Amino acid sequence: MSQSHFTWFDLAGVPHDKTYVAANIAVTGILVAYSLAARVALGSGEKAIQPAGKLSLKGFSEALVEFVDGMIKMVLGDHGKHYIPLFGSIFFFILFNNLFGLLPGMTAATSNINAAFAVGVFSFLVYNAIGLKHGGLHYVAHFAGPVWWLAWLMIPIELISHCVRPFSLGIRLSVNMTADHTILGTFIDLTKVVVPVIFYGMGTFVSFIQAFVFTILSMVYVLMATADDH
């Protein structure tokens, strides 16, 4: 929903320009509670490695983790498994925030450019930190390009290219989620019942796709930062 619309945070006296902060806090609390519940449902010992036999919190959580694991294998290969906590956190944080905005009277923090850009900056810092850890000074040297006499041209181009990435990630996420929730809110106001059901389905799909795209792009940046030809 647009942040100019009523949200339940209004009843708590949260200013409209801070609604996305309240939404972030709420979703973070939900994610922590969900993580703790999923860990308890996982169990220990033999129970932990046994696949869920029915639809349950354990089965749902395992499916999500397997999905993230599949994305990592697709982009980074089998050696990228140790990044599951990192990219799983990014994916779940964005997905839950996106879905939170579909709830009546709620708003998605990811619709706000500040929150979306913050996640983009996090991705930017992480892939550069991984690149430095993986390649050291060799990673820094790749900014100068393949030939030393073009360094004066390549360094500004590479720096601009890298600095644009958090903006592009944040703007893409924010614009798409704002458009999605605005359209949903408009049709709810106009039709109330039947048509909004269709747009709730579309909104859920868009929420998932935006989390998927953001996470995949973050993985690609890590892949580029750890490429052996740097």
Notes on the structure:
There is one protein chain. The mean pLDDT is 85. This protein has 8 helices and no strands. The radius of gyration is 20 Å and the shape is globular. The chain has 230 residues and is mostly helical. Helix 3 (57-75) packs across helix 4 (84-100), helix 4 (84-100) runs antiparallel to helix 8 (194-225) and helix 5 (113-135) packs parallel to helix 8. The protein has helices at residues 19-42, 46-49, 57-75, 84-100, 113-135, 137-141, 151-191, 194-225. The protein has one domain.
Round the mean pLDDT to the nearest integer and report it: 85
Supply the number of structural domains.
1
Give the class from helix and strand content and strand pairing: mainly alpha
**C-alpha-based Rg, rounded:** 20 Å
What are the secondary-structure elements, in order, as H or E? HHHHHHHH
Low-confidence blocks of residues:
none
Give the CA-CA distance, first to last residue: 43 Å
Count of alpha and pi helical runs: 8
Shape: globular
How big a fraction of the residues is strand? Answer: under 5%
Helix proportion: over 70%
Count of distinct strands: 0
Query: How is the main sheet built?
Result: none
Secondary structure topology:
Blueprint: H1 19-42, H2 46-49, H3 57-75, H4 84-100, H5 113-135, H6 137-141, H7 151-191, H8 194-225
Helix pairs in contact: 1-4, 3-4, 4-8, 5-7, 5-8, 7-8
Quick structural gist:
With 230 residues, the chain is mostly helical. It is built from eight helices and no strands. The chain has one domain.
Which key phrases capture this entry?
0% strand, single chain, mainly alpha, 230 residues, globular, 8 helices
